[in-house]
Each structure stands twice: as C-alpha cells, then as structure tokens.
Amino acid sequence: MQPNDLKLRWGVEQRLEFIEYRLFWEGYVNRGDIIDRYGVSVPQASKDLAQYQEAAPDNLDYDRRAKKYVPLPGFKPIYLKPDAEDYLTKLVSRTSQSSDLLSGIEYPKADMIPNLNRKLDPDVLRSLTTASRHLQVVEVAYQSMTSEASAPTLRKISPHGFGSDGMRWHVRGYCHRDDIFKDFLISRFHDIRAIEASEIDPRTDLQWHSTLNVILTPNPALSEAQQDVIAADYGMLNGRLEVDVRKSFLFYFLRRYRLDLTDLSPDPREAPLVIENRSAFEEALVSNQN
Q1: WYL domain: from which residue to which, for each copy (predicted)?
Q2: Who contacts 27 (Cβ-Cβ below 8 Å, separation ≥6)?
Q3: Please, how many CA atoms are within 13 Å of residue 60, restricted to the half-sphere of its CB?
C-alpha cells in the first residue's frame, strides 16, 4: 500500500514518516519516541505504530527483549526518501531547537568547518524580494570590487531572482546602466529604494531560464585506481556524471568544483574532475559574460 492510498491527515503522516525515519537511520523506534516527539497519548502512539505496520508489514517487527520495534532485513521506505546529506546536517545542528527528527536519541558526533556568512541586511533583502515580486526598478548604492570608485555608485536594477554559489547570495536582475542581466552580491548593497515599474520582462533573461547539461568525468591525468575512487565518490555511472546547471551559474560551478584548475595545476589531484563537454561549457560561459 502506498502512502497516497492512506489519505492521512497531515499530523498522522508526519508521525508515520518519523517512525520510518527512526527505523531507517537509528535502527529502532518505540512508543516513547513518538510521545516525546509529538506529545501524543500512549494509545495514539500505539495506534500510529499499528497503522505503520499495517501499511508496511515487511518493514518492522517488535523486539520483546529490547521493547522496541526494529527494521526487518527487507526494509524499504514508503514515506521517506532517505537523504544522507540531510541526515548529516541534522547531526551538525543537533543542539538546535528546530523540528529535526533526531531529538531525544543517542547520535554520533559530527561537525563542520565554520561558514563565513556575508552580512545580509534584512531590509535590503525585503526591498529586493518586493521589487522582484512586483516587477519594479530599484535604485541602489552598490559597491563593486571592479569599480575604481572608492564609494558605492548608484545603479538602477530590475531584480527577478536569487541564487547562491554555496558561499554568497546574489540577486539576479537587469542592470539599466550596463544594459544586461547580471548578478549582484546582496551584501554589497547599501541604500535601496523602489522608483518605478519595470518594463523589463524577466523571461528575456535566457541565461537564467536555460540550463546546460554538464558532463563530468574523472581527470584522465589521474591513475586508473584514482579515477575509480573519484567515480565512486560522486556516484558516477560508467565514469560520467551529468548535472543540469543554470547557464547563469556556470562560472560559480566552475570555481566551486575547481574545474578551472584542470589546465593550471601540475597535480591532477587538485582538480580531480574535468568537463567532458568542455567546448559547449565554454561557449555557454562566454555567452553568459557578454
């Protein structure tokens, strides 16, 4: 029986997914876990477990000695789409009070390097999202690293989207000074105000609305064994990994995965991935910069 067939109330479906999450990642679940997590009664927790067992009878069994439900060898999730990165993120944020599914259990230690977030002014972001939503032109004081001016310069922008390169948030919009769609770092906005309705149609930003299927392979300069390691690392199929990337993100994609070092570094381990369809990538990259 599939989840959609159960026609469940949202609260019940959340608890059934929680049961499955615990079974999959932690290897057990009991009534107390459900009670502690959702504050339901003992009869309700028992009913939830019975309902899950009815929906997926081959997924769990009750261990009387341990007094908990455990997954059976043929366990297959029906509510949960297991996400390893999401699970690791929950481990890192285990001390938060957010509604993660790991509260109240023993978990392995996990950590990550500090993320040096750039300061984003909430009022600036609010103005940008409002202008994007209502198709307005904003006048901003923007500090560009490429500008020779020591002070921010005034620009008129018609914003329409937001993107992250994994480190920094940008707003995508039409620059009325340069007559081109481009990205602006939100952290470099100082003053901002909406001044008029925009005549720019965001649908004409072809680099934003189109993607390139980027084909990645292990760097052929690596040894065969090293190439096998890289292929396994990224879950490649037949030594290839295909990723659809917005054309406006290609530069950031190139830099983040060190693909720009392929021809520069003498050590192929510094650039373990190469772009198989390099000519198509470079053509799209050049068109995005023009």
Answers
A1: 123-193
A2: 70, 71
A3: 29
- Domain assignment present for 103: no
pLDDT at 147 over 90: no
Cα 189–chain centre separation = 25
Number of domains, the chain: 3
Q: Which stretch of DSSP H or E encloses residue 90?
A: helix 84-92
Domain identity same for 34 and 68: yes
Question: Quick one: what percent of the chain has pLDDT higher than 90?
Answer: 63
Relative to beta strand 180-185, strand 169-175 is antiparallel
CA angle, 251 then 277 then 268, to 5°: 75
- What pLDDT score does 18 carry? 94
- Tell me, yes or no, whether 187 and 158 share the same domain: yes
Phi and psi for 257 in degrees, rounded to 5?
A: -100, 15
Per the structure, the complete domain to which residue 224 belongs is given by: 210-289
Q: Which amino acid is at 21?
A: Y
Other beta carbons within 10 angstroms of residue 218's beta carbon come to 25
Q: CATH number of the domain that 85 lies in?
A: 1.10.10.10
CA distance 243 to 168: 21
Residue 229 lies in a domain: yes
What region, left, alpha or beta, does residue 276 occupy, with left being phi > 0 and alpha being psi -120 to 50 degrees? alpha
Domain end, chosen from 92, 107, 139, is at: 92
197 in a domain, yes or no?
yes
Q: Average per-residue pLDDT in the chain?
A: 88
111 beta partners: none
